[in-house]
Amino acid sequence: MENYSIVIPSYTVGPDAYEKIPEFCRLYGRKAVVIGGEKAMAAAREKLLRALEGTDMEISAFVWYGKECTFEAAKRLAEEPAVLEADIIFAVGGGKAVDTCKLVSLELGIPYAAFPTIASNCAASSSVSIVYNEDGSFCRFVHFLKSAVHVFLDTDIMAKAPVQYLWAGIGDTCAKYYEVSISAKGEQLEHFRAMGVNLSRMCMETLVQHGEQALKDNEAGIASYDLEQAALAIIITTGWVSMLVARDHTMDYNGGVAHAFFYGLCSLPDFDETKKEHLHGVVVGFGILMLLLIDGREEECRKMMQFNQKVGLPVKLSDIGVTVEDVKKVAGIIVKDEDLEHYPYRVTEDMIVDAAKKLDVQQLPGQMF
Questions:
Q1: What is the pLDDT of residues 114-138, one digit of tens each?
Q2: If we measure between CA atoms, which residue out of 275, 242, 116 comes closest to residue 172?
Q3: C-alpha angle 40/30/60, rounded to 5°?
Q4: Which of 4, 206, 212, 321 could anchor a disulfide with 233, C-beta 3.0 to 4.6 Å?
Q5: What is the pLDDT of residues 51-87, one digit of tens each?
Q6: Coil, strand, or helix at residue 361?
Q7: DSSP secondary structure, 270-330, as one string
């Protein structure tokens, strides 16, 4: 085998995580520009500024990233004077904001640090951007050689974030274990990929253990141990797994039915990802049930249905506002999605539709089949 190196992003977590900014970011320059969502920047602004008081670092501007992670948005940002003059980008917000910052970082050749303000996905610690078209439909993935120089997880900010994002993050993160373990089935893996596959189990097990309480604590605005563990599983563990199992992108074990199902549904004209029932992680959480049925693991599907019911994730098609006819329309798109390119068997349109039919109506665990 050829030589290889593994670099995964470091992180700081806690209510005072931003105090470590100078320690981890000063090496990359003195002038930072904040790019992110409007609400996210408002939530983080005071702590960001306070963290740099009395240091030789400064924030030159706070810049709104836009509404979608698109190539057009990244190009526009890369032409902003404050961005052009920056030594480092502070990517603040959710997945789309952070993914947009990655594109800007790539365009300008400057590093970025990630400041996730919601625990909804692993964008802050992964080295891939999910890029959309201007109309909101899925465009493609962009892989990077480098990830964030450091990830700062302020648990107080996350505890005050809308609970729906943590809710969606739980669904998205549980899928990582099932998708990675199936994609790598029967493979002879290098050390780093084997480590990623084994680590992926923590994505699901941590949330099964802490997810329900974390949601309650988020509702109450409490930065608890359970919330911290859930946030770390969603943002850090999943991101590390993503990077390990697809380090050189020649062999990507990240994908699977759960995510392909979501991206296929995005092509439906009335499928609005901004709706609560259509949030990425919520649909992916339902996609896990599809995945398990297609993989012939009915008992595991029942267990995940029980977990979904505990945390309020969908267990039937109508929970995500979709019908069997909708699934039939996009089944051809789903099976061609790149998330299924490296799979131990061929997923067919019939498999997708049959699983959707079984999950079309509410059926209690143990009575599904």
A1: 999 999 999 999 988 989 898 877 7
A2: 242
A3: 45
A4: 206
A5: 999 999 999 999 999 999 999 999 999 999 999 999 9
A6: coil
A7: T--TTSGGG-HHHHHHHHHHHHHHHTT-HHHHHHHHHHHHHHT---SGGGGT--HHHHHHH
Lookup: tokens for 167: 């809710």
Q: Three-state DSSP class for 92?
A: strand
- Count Cβ neighbours within 10 Å for each residue of 275-304 and write b for 16 or more, e otherwise: eeebbbbbbbbbbbbbbbbbbeeeebbbeb
- Integer Cα distance of 243 and 119 in angstroms: 18
CB-CB neighbours of 167 under 10 Å: 23
Beta strands in the chain (DSSP E): 11-14, 31-36, 58-64, 88-93, 112-116, 128-132, 138-143, 151-154
Percent of the chain with pLDDT over 70: 95
Task: State whether residue 31 is helix, strand or coil.
Answer: strand
**Which phi and psi angles does 21 have, rounded to 5°?**
-55, -50
Two structure tokens written together for 142: 């962009």
Record the pTM: 0.91
Residue spans of alpha helices (H) in 114-190: 155-159, 163-183
User: b vs e for 16-39, b when ≥16 Cβ sit within 10 Å of the residue's Cβ?
Assistant: ebbebbeebbbebeeebbbbbbee
Residue 271's closest CA among 333, 323, 338?
Answer: 323
Which residues are CB-contacts of 48 (< 8 A; sequence separation ≥ 6)? 18, 21, 34, 59, 90, 92, 115
> 294 vs 70, 73, 81, 191, 202, CA distance in Å?
33, 38, 51, 29, 23
Block residue for tokens 């924030």:
59
Decide: 254 and 242 in contact? Cβ < 8 Å.
yes
Q: How many CB atoms lie within 10 A of CB 155?
A: 21
SS3 249: coil
d(CA 118, CA 85): 28
User: Which residues of the chain register pLDDT less than 70?
Assistant: 1, 145, 247-251, 273-275, 362-369
